[in-house]
Amino acid sequence: MLLLSGALGGACCTAAHAQVQTQIAQDRARLGNSTPLIQQIDPATVRDSERATAEAEEKAAGDGDRLDTSGNLLGNMWGARPWLYRHGISFDIQEVDEVWGNGTGGTPSSSDGSSGSGTGPAYDGVTMPTLTIDTEKLFGLEGGLFNVSALQTRGRSISQDHLANFNPVSGFEADRSTRLFELWYQQSFLQGKLDVKIGQQDLDTEFLISDYASLYLNANFGWPMAPSLNLYGGGPSWPLSSPAIRIRYRPSQKFTFMFAAADDNPPGNRYNSLPIQQATSGYNPDPTSQTYNGANGTNFNMGTGALLITELQYALNPQPADMAHAARSPGLPGVYKLGGYYDTAKFADYRYNRNGGSLGAATLAANPSQADLTPRWDRGNWLVYGIIDQMIWRPSLTSARSVGVFVRATGNGGDRNEISFAIDAGLNLKAPFRGRDNDTIGLGWGIGRASSGLRQFDRDSQTLTQGNENHLELTYQAQVTPWMVMQPDFQYVWNPSGGVPDYGVGYNRRVGNEAIFGLHTSLTF
Questions:
Q1: Which tops the pLDDT comparison, 269 or 92?
Q2: How much is the pTM?
Q3: Torsion angle defined by CA atoms of residues 321, 325, 330 and 336, in that order, rounded to the nearest 10 degrees
Q4: Which CATH number fits domain 10-524: 3.50.4.10, 2.40.160.180, 2.40.240.50, 3.40.80.10?
Q5: How do residues 59-72 score in pLDDT, each as one tens digit?
Q6: Reduced to 3 states, what is the DSSP secondary structure of residue 359?
Q7: Which residue, among 523, 438, 437, has the nearest Cα to 484 in the 3D structure?
């Protein structure tokens, strides 16, 4: 999944090096470098997209045999980085810090020291060191790549404290911990057309991702709300990873096929992972909680079920590597994806208890101690999705400026899931100002629909019925220095969690609409 720091093109670009191209680098090339400078899904995608940018710039400059450390705050680390690079070893540190505040709406919370205010500020931060080894450079094994990374997460989640949304307003919010993130080995075959990755992985850097949508900070634009809320602990996605095997086959520049089989339950805890299991007690689950068990990232749970996910990609008008010398216009590029997953585990039913009665009605029993509040367990879970990333305008073949649009939709069954349908879409302008080729401004929108099972549970328990949550985001990603990106952000959320009751002030009032401001920074050391 990782590219080595610095150049992989030019004179050094042997067949083995071509085999280690990340999915992010592949999509960036197919879309003519019109994707955001960094992809804001998680620190791993930030790192990978910055390396893909450096690779493209070095190829254009013809410096493929030189390690460029201008994008690192610590430079060449007193000669250590070039020496390690010559031996196939790279080490880098990604740092992300954010401040957030909601000016309207939200729900009171005293857990953050705000004495029950519905609004207020919050800070969250992530540090991710990564070690990568190119086995060909180190000891001659062609096409091999080893990766290990760790996370140190800190601060507080504004979504947990105040917002009560379906998904956090930032994809970088996480429980405070220091943990192993990924630990995997990838081997390429057939001159790079086939590669297999095995080990502890997160899947949200390769599957279910829109490259244009990854500009945005709201977590729904990264790993979308349906798998985040419907799978155990959100599934194998940031900041969690699971034992998995991933196969990627690229028979041509236009087609890519991917399949992965992973453990479906990174926290390793069947309970306290799905909100229906606490519904009868009035417990409001932490939307960013991933660390009930295995908080250090070494749980390696294999006891619940398997998550099987596949994706087929088609590239429309893939762009040539050298646009300046293109003989003719290749057309406006696009990437189209179809996929789905199936989870073999059992999931709690939202409507029925284990005896076939209404789970919601049981909460209204005259004697709750005698009511059956145990949900029925349903075998299996599925989701299908489609993604479109399409450039719709650019002034010339060699211009950095372009306009791209994206649409992504997911759908799944409603009896055992919190979300049954979600869609997001947006419009991005790359290089909006003269001399700001790596900046991007975007406007994105999304909607999530509470499932039929959840709505029936609400009706049976005679509480406010949840419906649709809408979110709008306006953001500007600016490269301040080669090693620092800043991103001011504004979001507005209508009907948080589809109009969930505001338990902080009463059961007959919904959480108010939210206006949220944020500032995100990303540094590469």
A1: 92
A2: 0.89
A3: 10
A4: 2.40.160.180
A5: 666 655 567 777 88
A6: helix
A7: 523
